[in-house]
Amino acid sequence: MSFDLAQLQATHRGAAQSLHRDHVNPKWMQALKLIGFDHEYVRAESQYLWDAKGNRYLDMIGGYAVCNVGRNHPVIRKALTDFLASQTPSMVQFDASILPGLLARQLKGRVGKDLDRVFFTNSGTEGIEAAIKFSRCATGRPTMLYEKGAFHGLSTGALAMNGCESFRSGFEPHPKDFRALPFNDLVSLERELARGDVAGFVVEPIQGKGVNVHSYGFLAEASALCHRHGALFVVDEVQTGVGRTGSFLAIDQEGAVEPDIVVLSKGLSGGYVPVGAVMTKTTVWDKVFSRLDRAIVHSSTFHMSGLAMVAGLATLSVLEDERLAENATQMGALLRNGLEAMKPRFEFIGAIRQRGLMIGIEFAKPSSLTLRMAWRMIHALDDNLFTQAVTIPLMQDHRILSQVAGHAIPVLKLTPPLTISSDDVTDFLGAFEKTMIGIHRFPGPAWDALRRIAMNSLRTNHAAPKIAQELDVHQAAAEWLGESDTTDQRTDSRK
Fold it and tell me: Which residue from 348, 334, 360 is spatially nearest to 438, judged by alpha carbons?
């Protein structure tokens, strides 16, 4: 029996959701259906997706900052097909192929900072796990520091440095010797370093959960403090790297930052093949790979896959040739300026945090009585619901994909492909403005959508309502949700 990919896909067109529901992750499919994101996309190009009906969607998620060069870039696609056609050996293991060496040299040329050794991985999480091992080995110390609110992956070691309790819960006990610091707090960092047991401090230049940006100078001073106390400074650029913030690394914009280890992934993949890179100083590397019998003391079967190396090389070429980091700077500024211009008109819009095309729009409690009551009610039901009142109409009414920045975080997060145009920015700003107009009308259609989601969540135990904390809020929310006889009276009075 021959394998025909096109026929296989055509035969099962429209069956993706049922296949996932029956064989992969039914809870995830239930969640997508709940918020109206249960679409099956059949084509992708650059910053756009198309469904089977021919509807085009603007992708402002970019695969969680994976598709920096856009989806299905022709240069990367050709490079991968050329590699397959060449019949070049891959994963021989007992060899030294040319491609990892070339990619390592390219990365060193762009990053600098005396990061002279490169270990390739299959993901950012694997890179963080390697960084933990390398830090402990190089220093002889056990403790790793991280910031509250951080996200460094979901494997065992990385999970122990995860600042989001919703990810940690249920997987206890976590490994010891991981200590959390307040975000952006040099005093706390120095106090912990002074204890003398810290191997490394792992930090995201911009936190992915919440899009929290450190104050200028923090990262430079943090690296200096680490070195003063004999600890390593480890920078997680998994999401912020490869041009996302307008420079190859986010730390390039932060002054004299001196990392000992930098972890890259996501955008290095070209949106095709999983790949990551752990870049270290030679002094760190030589402590880990210290003798001939330790030459592969840390390794992975697939970490230098030929396809992954080709994807990385082609991505770097496209990034430079198309000046995508520069475009990230320009389009990011356009987005921020447009969003800032809306703030005086819309009570729900709080802080705008932005570096290049990594943008967080924080929603805040409004000042007017009616909207403040609506805000209070929805948060009494579930802290996650309000931002969905923005992502859902953006998707359903305007065909724009966006995301909530994290569990119970009232922040809309944008990480689009770096290929977006000024026309895309205009389209997004127009759609966002209309969505804001809708959410500032209470009662109104946007709140009706939230009502439906809240009812479904409560009935299926997806939400964890906090209603019981305050009886008056419980009563108001119950009435609004239709759980009281007074609802009909209120609804009738509005007509």
Answer: 348
Pairwise CA distance, residues 348 & 351, whole Å: 10
Site of tokens 């010797």:
177
CA pair distance 200, 193, nearest whole angstrom: 9
| pLDDT, mean of each 10-residue run, the chain (495 residues) | 87 89 90 85 96 95 96 97 93 89 97 96 97 98 97 95 90 93 98 98 97 97 98 98 98 95 97 96 96 91 93 98 98 98 96 98 93 85 83 93 91 98 98 94 75 64 41 43 38 32
Task: Yes or no: say if 211 and 359 are a contact pair by the CB < 8 Å rule.
Answer: yes
Q: How far is CA 89 from CA 83, 101, 312, in A?
A: 10, 15, 17
> Residue 184: which of 167, 166, 205 has the closest Cα?
205
Q: What's this model's pTM, rounded to 2 decimal places?
A: 0.90
All structural domains of the chain, each given as residue ranges with its CATH number in brackets, are 39-69+324-494 (3.90.1150.10), 75-321 (3.40.640.10)
- Exposure of 264 in the CB half-sphere (CA atoms within 13 A): 30
The helix or strand, by DSSP H or E, that contains position 210, with its residue range, turns out to be none
C-alpha to C-alpha distance for 131 and 138, rounded to whole angstroms = 10
Q: Which residues pair with 404 in a beta bridge?
A: 412
| Dist. CA 13–CA 52, nearest whole Å | 9
